[in-house]
Write a structure and sequence with these properties.
The protein has about 200 residues and is of the alpha+beta class. It folds into 3 domains: about 1-50 and about 105-130; about 55-100; about 140-195. Helices cover about 50% and strands about 25% of the residues. The chain has helices spanning about 55-75, 85-100, 120-140, 150-160, 165-195; strands spanning about 1-5, 10-15, 20-25, 30-35, 45-50, 100-105, 110-115. The protein has a 4-stranded antiparallel beta sheet, covered by helices on one side. Strand 1 (about 1-5) and strand 2 form a beta hairpin.
Length: about 200
């Protein structure tokens, strides 16, 4: 599955592969591509608001030129006039203030993933989240009875904190571990008693 987002000169391509998300970003600095395992994408995100600095710079420049023209007109003719460039500057500054792009950002070890807040935003976030949880569960969701019980509980507590499992699943794991280790102790005790007899 592929989803492409475009905003002004920036674009993002999300390719949802079986094990990896392949992300291609394009901005003023160039194009970059990287692949990252879904399970390596953090649950926490940040927000970025991007504005077109060209409108800000042009707006300031033209507003200054326009101010200078107004001042010279007032000095030479005794009235206000020649404010065309000042008005253009104000329009550019207004566009700079209004025309902004919001992103949800995932900071991964391979690079930053930018998701534009448009009509596809929620679908992309949901797809990343569900595939991330699925992959984390496939990596760590199996109960290892041979492992230290406290380490296993820590692992499943972490899975719960990551939203991979809920409290009901965690409670089931606790009960299974308790039951298994109680049975092991009982078997060990019976085996010990048989040895003594």
């Amino acid at each position: 599955m592929e989803i492409k987002q475009k905003r002004f000169s920036n674009s993002s391509l999300f390719q949802f592969l079986n094990e990896d998300l392949k992300f291609t970003g394009k901005d003023q600095s160039g194009t970059y591509t990287f692949s990252v395992k879904y399970g390596s994408i953090p649950a926490n995100t940040s927000e970025l608001i991007e504005r077109n600095v060209w409108f800000r710079n042009a707006g300031i420049l033209w507003a200054l030129i326009g101010s200078l023209q107004i001042g010279l007109h007032y000095r030479d003719f005794g009235g206000f006039g020649g404010g065309f460039w000042f008005l253009v500057g104000l329009i550019c500054l207004g566009i700079y203030g209004v025309a902004k792009t919001k992103y949800t950002v995932f900071n991964t070890d391979k690079g930053r993933i930018y998701v534009v807040k448009n009509k596809d935003h929620d679908h992309i976030i949901s797809e990343i989240s569900s595939r991330r949880k699925e992959q984390l569960f496939s990596w760590y969701g199996e109960l290892d009875f041979s492992n230290d019980p406290n380490a296993e509980l820590d692992k499943f507590r972490w899975l719960m904190s990551e939203g991979v499992i809920g409290e009901v699943e965690y409670t089931r794991v606790v009960e299974k571990l308790k039951s298994y280790h109680q049975n092991q102790e009982l078997q060990n005790t019976q085996s010990h008693n048989e040895t003594l007899n």
